[in-house]
Amino acid sequence: MTNEIGQPRVVDVRDLGKTYGSGEAAVEALKSVSFHAAAGEFVMLSGPSGSGKTTLLSILGCVLRPTAGVVSLFGRDIATAGEDELPALRLGLIGFVFQGFNLIASLTALDNVALVLQLRGRAAADARREAATLLGDVGLAEKAASLPRDLSGGQKQRVAIARALAGRPPLLLADEPTANLDGHTGLQVTELLRDLARAHGSTVVIVTHDNRIFHLADRIVHIDDGRIQEEAA
Amino acid sequence: MTASNLRLSGGVIPSKASPETTPLSAPTAVRPSRSLRWRTMLAVGARMMFYDKLKFAGTLFGVIFAVILTTQQIGVFLGLLSKNTMFIDNAGADIWIAPPQTATLQAGKPVPMSALYAARTTTGVAWAEPLLFGGGTISLPSGGSQAITLVGTEGPRWYGGPWNLVAGAADALAQPDAMIFEDSQRDDLGGLNLGSVREVNGHRVVTSGFTWGLLPFAPSYAFAEYDYARSLLGTPSDEASFVLVGLRRGADATRVARDIRAQTPTVDVMTTAEFHGRVVRYLLISTGIGATTGASTAFGLIVGLVIVSLSMFSAVVDNIREFGTLKAIGCRNADLALMLFVQSSIYGLLGSVIGLTQITIIADAMRSPKLALVLPWPVFVGTPVLMVLLCGLASLLALSRVRKLEPAMVFR
Do residue B47 and residue A107 have CB atoms under 8 angstroms apart? Predict the structure, then answer.
């Protein structure tokens, strides 16, 4: 399956619905959302708080089940994947960048990155070598032995990007990656994410409401009240 | 494209800079070897555990406390049992002939001398000797008196006689008026020294030696030659407190005991192991010592369980975002369970090593004939196993929290 210009679709979402709770307390977070991202695309999901963009990202990240619709990653319907398959799918397909960095506090920057590689089956020495290369790519080679508590917010997010890129996952999902950073650092980090993702050939979906980084997107998808309101290239 | 033709090919995804329209060769799930995965989780688990040093120390303290409390209770209990069975174990007999219904090593209804003669004529018996047990009092130079447990033993082999001698020899009992006393009680018995002359049950005795640690849960043992002890206790010549029997090489104790029993139906005939077991059972069941010690030991274990359980649960709650992150990036519940199990095992093993070292030091410091912690090697082997199991059990609470953890929480 390809998009309008013939690129293969990495993400293909159709008529997606997600309802939290049941009965009178039910909250419909996503309402018949259809969305796609092509290979190598850099897509931003924007919208106000509570619009459903993080819910959509969670479903794409295989950490949340939809209540309706089809979610296809690389042609595989993840909505029907078994519970036991999801961790392996996340490990194999997806790199995550979180708003709060979510580095393991007890591990050094190098070990945080190497952890993903080791979980993916790389031997420890090999994983550490590649992790060091990735940290070099994000400009933190000299901080490899630092614990997260000794890094600034921007440095932590760059380590998180290196971790997300570890193992060259074809899909990167980022949740408000600039929210805890100042404007300049946020822009730098997003540019870094875009450049490295392109170099690695990864598709990127970013949830953000930081309009200072919108210009970096190939496409911006605006969500409000659980529906896609508009898309802009 | 179907799931069956998916394969890992992270490098073939085209970048925007070089778009292509060929069918996407899609990556798929990663399933590394279990051993590699687990080695990784072990390393992460250990690092997470040692990172919060205060919590680590608190949890470890709980385990150490439980180990000390538990082993101290077990040591006291075994020490108590030892005090009540040490004479049986050290008398040198294979078979004991005792008054009927004998549950402890105390002077009670006498054993007729006919039992001694019956034993001596039984096939398989090498020797049989009478033993006297009775209460005595030693007069003190200050004017008071002190109770002793008077033991009469027959020479020249002195079965049931003094052991752990720190001064003198058993053969000294063959001398007129000779008695051997417990060294740790010398002051209580009026400042005894070798050669000290005292009065026991109104008769003159001469101190001829000292034992060490022969202090039962009763007045200390004091040994005398059998006939002299009989005169001190006023025991008739046709009676004894017990009869000790030794077997010829290769004789079966159970069979010989049965043969003696057939000839002397009015007394109890037991192998040494049976007598030992009977005393232990009596102490455990009839005296409440077993229930009391068992409750204290269980209390120690429960305290350890609660401390470790709450500490590990609180460590998980404190690091809930990290556990969520690990789940989000692809760790399974089994991986995290292993990590928690490794952490709990480290707590159990480390706590056991430190706790057992501490209790060994404590036991050495407080060791005396009056109060001895008995800690045999099974305690040192069994405690780490027990504590690892206990800590594993304690980690279940933390594990239940981790299992319920939704990886989607990392986006909240």
Answer: yes
Regarding whether B153 and B108 lie in a shared domain, the answer is yes
Structural domain boundaries enclosing A94: 9-232
B295 phi/psi in degrees, rounded to 5: -65, -40
**Best residue of B7, B329, B338 to probe chain A, by most A CBs closer than 10 Å:** B329
- The end-to-end CA distance of chain B, in Å, is 34
User: Within this chain, do residues B72 and B122 fall inside the same structural domain, yes or no?
Assistant: no
pLDDT tens-place string over residues A152-172: 999 999 999 999 999 889 999
Per-residue model confidence (pLDDT) at position B12: 32
pLDDT value, residue A7:
57
Q: What is the pLDDT of residue A85?
A: 85
* Predicted ipTM of the assembly: 0.89
Q: Enumerate long-range contacts of B344-347, CB under 8 Å, 24 or more apart.
A: B344/B308, B344/B312, B344/B388, B344/B391, B344/B392, B344/B394, B344/B395, B345/B388, B345/B391, B345/B392, B346/B46, B346/B49, B347/B59, B347/B60, B347/B63, B347/B308, B347/B312, B347/B391
One-letter amino acid of B285: I
Identify the pLDDT of residue B101: 87
> How many residue pairs bridge chain A and chain B with CB atoms within 8 Å of each other?
177
**Calpha distance B313→B157 (Å, rounded):** 64
Minimal-distance CA residue of chain A relative to B25 = A74
Measured distance CA(A123)–CA(A162) in Å, rounded: 18
Residues of chain B with pLDDT under 50: 1-25
- Name the residue range of residue B113's domain: 100-266
Predicted structure pTM score: 0.75
User: Do the beta carbons of residue B200 and residue B228 sit within 8 Å?
Assistant: no
Is B168 contained in some domain?
yes
d(CA B62, CA B70): 12
| Residue A1 covered by a domain | no
B337 lies in some domain = yes
Residues in CB range of B296: below 8 A, 6 or more apart: B69, B73
- CATH number of the domain where residue A206 is located: 3.40.50.300
Chain B residues 277-336 with a CB less than 8 Å from chain A:
319, 321-322, 324-332
Considering the domain boundaries, does residue A138 fall inside one? yes
CB contact under 8 A, A7 and B326: no
Q: What is the pLDDT of residue A1?
A: 54
As for how many domains chain A has, the answer is: 1
Relative to beta strand A203-207, strand A42-46 is: parallel
| Whole-Å CA distances, B12 to A199, B7, B22 | 11, 11, 11
Looking at residue A3, its pLDDT comes to: 53
Instruction: Give helix B320-328 / helix B333-366 axis angle, nearest 10°.
Output: 140
pLDDT at position B2, please?
32
Q: What is the DSSP letter of B181?
A: E
- Cross-strand bridge partners of residue A231: A221
Report whether pLDDT(A61) > 50: yes
| A212's tokens | 């200072």
Residues A119, B319: C-beta atoms closer than 8 Å: no
